[in-house]
Amino acid sequence: MKVVHEIWEGIPLLNVAAEDRFAEALPTVVFFHGHMSAKEHNLHYAYQLANEGMRVILPDAHLHGDRDEGLDEIQMSLRFWEIVLTSIEELAIIHTAIYEKNLAVGEIGIGGTSMGGITTLGALTVYPWIKAASVMMGAANYVQLAKAQMAQFESKGFKLPITDDERKQMLDTLARFDGTKNRAVFQQRPLFFWHGEQDTTVPFEPTFNFYNALKEDYAEVPERIRFMREKESGHAVSRPGMLAAMAWLAEHVAE
């Protein structure tokens, strides 16, 4: 496996593929890391796909990894949605660069863990060119999740640094990327979910409920959607979950 650190349009990322095929155009996946993590922390996902003859692009999210600005966890949490929306916007830049550099065969897949899974579901609502996706510990209910996060901050005595108008504007913006309000845009594209039932960071139930609603839209092609749940798992992807999520991308992006 060959791992090359590159910067595309100001976005630091890792370009990963099998060493003997690195110069070829390959089936390609963009993989998003979680909150307070960084691109290199997901190399084990890239390793699985590289072994299947694929290329993986691992970008650093805004304010993360090589883009760290020294913010503490509270400051980072307050900017969570800014980070997510920036990643969605930057995916279009990465997508363009992939083809300008002749790196990919066919359309790309995407995936991610936690914040990266949330980013993945938001990206699916705006980019019809995404071929397939794997979502681990993600959530599509942007508006509900943002309201819960704000309520949690306020319950701890934090005064959020936004006006009521800014709050409304933020929620209106998030609604545009909220998969629960935009189910039709998923267009029966291959979609895999993994979620632990004991997850207290990104709750299990809303994502499982979204999957059950979305299943109706996949009634003609039920094999294109799958939800893998683990009863004892919390906010950490198990090895079986990781392997299943990568096998899904290998199957559906390379087909």
UniProtKB/TrEMBL annotation:
UniProt-listed InterPro entries: AB_hydrolase_fold (IPR029058), FrsA_esterase (IPR050261), Peptidase_S9_cat (IPR001375)
- One GO term of the biological process aspect: proteolysis
Q: Tell me the Pfam families matching this sequence.
A: Peptidase_S9
User: Does this UniProt record's set of keywords contain DNA repair?
Assistant: no
Location of the Peptidase S9 prolyl oligopeptidase catalytic domain: 107-241
Q: Does the record's keyword annotation contain Transit peptide? A: no
Q: Which SUPFAM superfamilies match?
A: alpha/beta-Hydrolases (SSF53474)
A GO molecular function term, named singly, is:
serine-type peptidase activity
Which domain of life, per UniProt? Bacteria
Query: Which keywords fit this entry according to its UniProt record?
Result: Hydrolase
Q: What is this protein called?
A: Esterase
